[in-house]
């Protein structure tokens, strides 16, 4: 991890994983060499606020702590698609969500992650931590969630804040691999 990068740790029922603030950008840059100037698909700066999501249609879950809806997820499609192929899955429909995280708010990162994993398990999904080969850094967390006639692939990462006193973003990508598994 580069000097000065924010580091947070995800503690879930599936183990402990450290999230570095620059992890998503570094892995996406490696996955998408066609656009080296921008690295990872970042949440674009906007003059209008992003809409808030009530839940994930793909996972069939509501969010207690409402994230921003990051468009249709197409900016992240090649990145999550490569990681899914690494574990012999193919992404279909995709959703992308983001939460703003103040400073090093470890408690909130843990709460969001544990709530997501817990909700998936409560809905009778079998959740497994996976390590796709294209995700070279251990700081990007990937899961499969299978059950109820659905197969999902999820990725969590923390994007860096632009400055010390500004907000980072926890990004959740979900793709449906049901028809393509």
Total domain modules: 1
Distance between the termini: 34 Å
- Helical content stands at 10-25%
How much is the average pLDDT? 77
Strand content: 25-35%
Report the biggest beta sheet as strand number plus sense, adding barrel if it closes: 6 strands, antiparallel
Strand order of the largest sheet: 5-6-10-9-8-7
Instruction: Return residue spans where pLDDT drops below 50 for at least 5 consecutive residues.
Output: 1-41
Q: Please give the number of β-strands.
A: 10
Which H/E pattern describes the elements? Answer: EEHEEEHEHEEEE
What is the approximate shape? globular
Oligomer: single chain
Q: What is the number of helices?
A: 3
Overall radius of gyration: 15 Å
Broad structural category? alpha+beta
How would you characterize the overall build of this protein?
It is a single chain. This protein has helices at residues 23-31, 77-86, 106-122; strands at residues 7-12, 15-20, 55-56, 61-62, 68-69, 94-102, 126-130, 141-147, 150-159, 167-176. It has one domain. The strands form three sheets. It has a six-stranded antiparallel β-sheet, with helices on both faces. It starts with 6 loop residues before the first strand and ends in a 5-residue tail after the last strand. The protein contains three helices and ten strands; from the N terminus they run ββαβββαβαββββ. It is of the alpha+beta class.
């Amino acid at each position: 991890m580069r000097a000065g990068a924010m580091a947070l740790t995800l503690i879930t029922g599936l183990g402990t994983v450290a999230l570095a603030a620059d992890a998503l950008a570094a892995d996406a840059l490696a996955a998408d060499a066609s656009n080296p100037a921008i690295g990872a698909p970042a949440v674009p700066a906007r003059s209008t606020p992003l809409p808030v999501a009530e839940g994930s249609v793909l996972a069939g879950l509501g969010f207690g702590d409402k994230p921003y809806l990051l468009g249709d997820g197409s900016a992240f499609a090649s990145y999550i698609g490569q990681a899914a192929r690494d574990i012999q899955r193919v992404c279909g429909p995709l959703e992308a969500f983001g939460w703003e995280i103040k400073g090093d708010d470890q408690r909130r990162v843990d709460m969001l992650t544990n709530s997501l994993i817990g909700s998936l398990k409560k809905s009778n999904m079998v959740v497994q931590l996976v390590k796709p080969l294209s995700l070279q850094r251990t700081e990007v967390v990937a899961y499969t969630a299978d059950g109820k006639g659905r197969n999902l692939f999820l990725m969590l990462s923390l994007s860096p804040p632009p400055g010390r006193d500004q907000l980072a973003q926890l990004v959740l990508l979900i793709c449906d691999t049901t028809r393509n598994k």
